[in-house]
Automatic annotation (TrEMBL):
GO molecular function list: ubiquitin protein ligase activity
Pfam families, sorted: HECT (PF00632)
Entry keyword set: Transferase, Ubl conjugation pathway
Domain of life: Eukaryota
InterPro entries found in the cross-reference section: E3A/B/C-like, HECT_dom, Hect_E3_ubiquitin_ligase
Protein's recorded name: HECT-type E3 ubiquitin transferase
Similarity comment text for this entry: Belongs to the UPL family.
One of the GO biological process terms: protein polyubiquitination
PROSITE patterns in alphabetical order: HECT
Gene3D superfamilies listed in its UniProt record: Hect, E3 ligase catalytic domain, Hect, E3 ligase catalytic domains
Active site: C1015 (glycyl thioester intermediate)
UniProt source species: Ceratopteris richardii
Compositionally biased residues, Basic and acidic residues: 8-27
Amino acid sequence: MFFSGDPSTRKKVDLGGRSSKERDRSKLIQQARVEREKRQRLRLETQSAIRIQRVFRGRRVIAAERQEIRKQFCALYGELGEKADANAFKVESKYLPQLLFYYQLEDKADLHRLAGVCQLFNRLLGSGSLPAVFGSDGSATSEKMVVLRVTKFCFICLQAVHYYREYFKEELLEPFTDWGSCHNLAGLLLQTVLVLTDNYTPWCGVVFDFLYEKKLFSLLRDLLLTVQSSSTEVHGRTTYLEQTLVSLSLRQIDRGQFSTTLKSWSFTTQILSFPLLFQKFSLLKEVFVNRGLWEFSIRQLASSLQNFIELLPVNSSVQFPSNVCLLGNLLEISISALSFQECPSELAVYFASIARCLIEDLPPPYKRIPEDLAEASDIIVDEEEPFASIMAEKALEDQLQLIYAKGEIIKSLVLLAFPNPPSLHTDQGLKVEPPSISEAEAIGEVCMFLHATLLLGRSTEVYTTLAYKTNIVMYLWSYIYRCHSANEWPIVKLQGRHSTDQYPLSDADGIVMALLIFCPVYSFMLLSIDNEEFNEQQRPLRLEDIKQLVLLLKEALWQLLWVLPSKIASANSGANAKHEISRGTFTMKYIRKMVSKSTSRLLQQLQDWNSKKQFMPPQSFYAREAMDEIFFSQVDKENSRANELLVQAPFLIPFTHRVRIYHIQLSAAKEQHNMQSLFPRRHIRVRRDRIVEDAFAALNSLQDEALEATIRIVFVNEFGVEEAGVDGGGLFKDFMESITKAAFDIQYGLFKETPDHLLYPNPASHMVHDEHLQYFEFLGKILGKAMYEGILVDIPFATFFLSKLKKNLGPNFLQDLSSLDPELYRSLLFLKRYEGDLAQLGLYFVIENNEYGEQVQVELLPGGKDLQVSNDNVLIYIHLVANYRLNVQIRKQSYHFLRGFQRLIQPKWINMFSEHELQVLISGSVEGLNLDDLQSNAKYSGGYSESHPVIQMFWETIKTLDLNLQQKFLKFVTGCSRGPLLGFKYLEPQFCIQRAAPEDASDDILDRLPTSSTCMNLLKLPPYKRKDILKDKLLYAINAEAGFDLS
């Protein structure tokens, strides 16, 4: 009805659609559930209270009973048990049971009563055997009772020492003589433990197992940590604690417990991870190897590679992480363990696996990733990681560096793991058996360990040891060759908690582990071997082996850089794609990346050796697939497979293809510059007789954009008159040839030449020019400008200097010295092969410079004048001498030259070329001009044609000239004496011969000389009647060297 103003009369409606009865029902159910839970909670509280009261009453009763039994014991046997007789420990006696019942660890009076019992026990033991002391009647019940008592007695003695370890600290460190003369309390308790666990007792196994499960070695570790901070000097002496540690450690070995599963409280995890263990406990170090502790520990760790690091105890301090301590101790003891005569080869492989896992797990302060490894890895140090900001402990760091101690660990490991000398049979027709799975696994683990050692920071020492103290290069080559010949590549799965999830995408994965070490070590050897060793003695590999190696590495590299990325992308795009585990350092992606880098470096070196003295066709280094259009379509795309291959392994691509790519990149840069440039053409005047100084004054201060812009030249002759001709590009070419000829002339003083007449910076250039470094930078710009404009210049650089342009001042090595100073090179080789006592030669770590009559002595090392060259350090001396001559002496000059050069030429443009190829890029081919190529790409105008008699006479004449005259002719018509790298098809504009007079011209007109327009690559040739006249006029013109005055 109508609203009455009384809200109480309105009907209440549940918007959820429930009736009031339903609402009351749900409330009732909810209330019932709450009350039920309340009753349940009350019952649990009551039961818990009853249980607590029962336990409390029981403990109170036991405490009262314990007090009563203690009184009875003291009344019967004396306060310290001294009244007991010889039957005190027999089965029927209450002496020991009462002690075991009332003994309270926290009660110090009980500790002294326990010591009294131990004194009586050891006194009785001196007059009888151990079984006689306990007096069992031989029954099963009696035997069980004795074992139970002995076990508990032994445990409370050990427990007492552990509980009062701070109190016993000084006693534990007292010098040990023998147990019979022991008078201190801690020694007495430990003596009892050792007696009761002696291997000759009938219950030793049961007792030791009980102690082991009660975390025996965890208790011992606590004792070690307690005495660690003691100020008492114990070095060189065996203490009671060490004697106990050694004895109990050997108990497990004597009982043959090699199959014991690794636990968090095992000897291996608890004791071996103690900081600087073997430096503090010399007795343990003495027995560790020859008594079997080494083998026991290694086998235990190897059985738990997946999780042994997680089983290690909590770090004793931030400075001493347990995993680092374990690695340090293993490395320290492995020096003697791996050289132990009875050490089986499988232990060496196990050790390699364990050490690799530990190195991979090192915290940041102890892991130093070399630059070349860091570039290839995806390792990122988390700044918030617990150890990221902690400084490495010096003593622990020194312990880790023991891996490099004279190379003994690495040398012994390799000799143990690969005991049989490799046999190489590369003869065709012989069947080659592939390696076994076990050999492949050993190769994989050892190679990964050797690679892991590089993370500790001293890669040179690792490579030196592997190269000169082991036969690993020969062994790995034998393995690689056998796999390749049999066409079987075992897939090796790494073990460990960071193991990679490998799956056979390609044969490349079966070879990567071996190549991971083979390539960098062999590459390292190639840096120091000389031409005679490589070509004549053929060490370490025969040339026939190297030919096989090149083909194999080329295929592996192509697989890694081209084929495999495509397969991985396809696999990852599938629904059931397998993904690599990326935890840890050594992911499969990282390994492949490292192998591709080292393989590329080795192949590049072998190509360099081949360019010096050819042992196989240069085309053998090219990958056939790198020539197709699919490859070229991807080259200019960032992060593409083709681009990656071009960066890492350019030598797989034929030289002419790379020149094409270079020109494409150069043209793109020019086009971009032309679009953005605000700089107009720049005109400069230069005097021919002062061309270097004038050009330096006009061009050296220009910005990069101005250098890239067009530069036009006006020449002034020796009479101060501007030469005829307008620069359309030809004069600039002439300028580039003239300035390079003048500035790089050795008489100018900035450059010197090798005995082979190859140029390199003059180390004494500062004595010739005050602004010598500015001039070097300017000449770098001149060379860069020549290459930028595509002008070939005749500057024959020394190979070792070209490598600095390519490697951004990267170092040169011993074999490069032969081109700089052959006499010094031969002297260093004499020292390298000298078998006598080098100290008798009286050489020191100094070198003498003799420049322009001034002699200066330079130390190769700090204090080098007092450091004599010996057989131990002669290799260091040789490399320092070579490094000084090739790198140190010309470092400043090379740096400034490179800085100027890179103002115009980007490093990525030339890094795809070898030093020999870079010289061709600068100067063109040293081989004869291909006149047939010039003829086939020539154009004709003004009435001339290919079949015209004058043209036929011209080509016949040109082809009869020697190379020098042919080059002069080319310079006469193009401004450059070298042809384009890819042939005259790419000459811009194309070479053209134009008729310079009518066919019926008078003799006066036909008496003119041929002229040229170098900016148009145009030859203006009169229609001479006879061949001899044509030749005479042409030779006069090209030999006049009168610039544009003839035009």
